[in-house]
Design brief:
It is a single chain. The protein contains 9 helices and 5 strands, in the order E-H-E-H-E-H-E-E-H-H-H-H-H-H. It is of the alpha/beta class and about 350 residues long. It has 2 domains: about 180 residues, Pyruvate Kinase, Chain: A, domain 1, CATH 3.40.1380; about 70 residues, no CATH class. It has a 5-stranded mixed sheet, sandwiched between helices. Helix 3 crosses helix 4 and helix 8 packs antiparallel against helix 9. The relative contact order is 0.09.
């Protein structure tokens, strides 16, 4: 008789799927691909299914999808050994030998190369090639080499049964161990590619954002400069307006303010009086337009002579000009001076 693990059941009532995923994410579509394939395989077999998961990602997805998760194993070491997968193998073998399940499959990611990892499902127990020709699930099942029945007879020591009892369980564990190693290699490659793509995308995004930031910063600087220039011009306009208003008020006050004898006026505004003549008059105590208007020609002549200066021909018109200046009637003064020639009546 064949070894129990080599015996195919006549009727398949219940199957078991051992799903191998990772405990962590950030590996691109690695977990999503194998979980999707496992779910489609289970649906297409249309049999009651028990699910055993290796890896938290597969466990969480299967529980959320409502599948019958009978056991879960996680936190596999980075460098697993046969001892690490022995509990999984023992659980599956016991379920198969007890008749609890009639067929067991392993869903894992087959490592092709660094850029290619293919989700796959292969028949694990019984240890025979699974022929699913014509079934919808056949597209997911990994091909296995066919073994020819022809060959010579061999003698085995201590005997075929004893050798099979030792080899078959070990081979069963080795198949699961190989699937786990293939999945881990695929996970590392997928994570490396995902991180490289993420780094390249981040670099490109950084360049784009830096360009946008520089544009925004330059636009903000330009706007601030324009605001400063506009504010400066507006401030200058305000200053000019206030200055004009102050000067206009000042000149209006000056023109309307009555003169007093104590005022110290600019006597050179009288046509015919220069700086030296004005100094001579002020030395004589004539400091304002009003004083000049009230002074007699004799007083003016004496002040000029005392300063060592000659008689001024325009002296007769000084009193009239000074009277207008003392009253602040500048327009009349300008009109009078327009008629005079060098301060004298024409």
């Amino acid at each position: 008789t064949l070894h129990p693990l080599l015996t195919e059941r006549e009727e398949i009532n219940t199957i078991m799927v051992v799903l191998i995923t990772s405990d962590r994410g950030l590996a691109g579509a690695f977990n999503a691909n194998i979980i999707r394939v496992a779910e489609r395989f289970i649906r297409n077999t249309n049999k009651p299914t028990q699910v055993v998961t290796i890896g938290r990602k597969g466990r969480d997805s299967m529980i959320r999808a409502g599948y019958n998760v009978v056991a879960e194993f996680g936190n596999m070491p980075a460098e697993p050994t046969i001892a690490d997968i022995s509990p999984v193998a023992r659980l599956a073998i016991d379920a198969f030998l007890s008749g609890e399940v009639d067929d067991i499959f392993i869903a894992y990611t087959d490592f092709i190369n660094t850029l290619t990892q293919r989700p796959a499902v292969f028949g694990w127990l019984p240890l025979i090639p699974h022929d699913l020709t014509g079934q919808v699930a056949a597209e997911y099942v990994k091909d296995v080499p066919q073994v020819s029945d022809a060959g010579a007879d061999y003698e085995y020591e201590p005997g075929p049964e004893a050798i099979l009892d030792e080899i078959v369980p070990r081979f069963t564990e080795l198949q699961l161990y190989q699937a786990l190693l293939e999945s881990q290699a695929s996970e590392h490659s997928a994570r490396m590619v995902a991180m490289r793509n993420a780094s390249e995308n981040a670099t490109a995004l950084t360049a784009d954002l830096t360009l946008e930031y520089n544009k925004a910063r330059q636009a903000a600087i330009t706007a601030e400069i324009l605001d400063i220039v506009g504010g400066t011009e507006a401030l200058q306009d305000s200053i000019d307006a206030v200055t004009d208003e102050i000067l206009a008020t000042y000149y209006a006050d000056v023109q309307t303010q009555p003169r007093t004898a104590s005022s110290d006026d600019d006597l050179t505004r009288i046509e015919g009086i220069g700086p030296k003549m004005a100094a001579a008059l002020k030395a004589a105590g004539i400091n304002s337009f009003e004083q000049l208007a009230q002074a007699s020609e004799d007083e003016l002549t004496k002040a000029i002579n005392d300063a060592g200066m000659r008689f001024a021909p325009s002296l007769p018109t000084w009193a009239e000009q000074a009277a207008l200046a003392a009253q602040g009637d500048w327009e009349a003064l300008e009109a009078l001076q327009d008629r005079l020639v060098a301060g004298r009546e024409n």
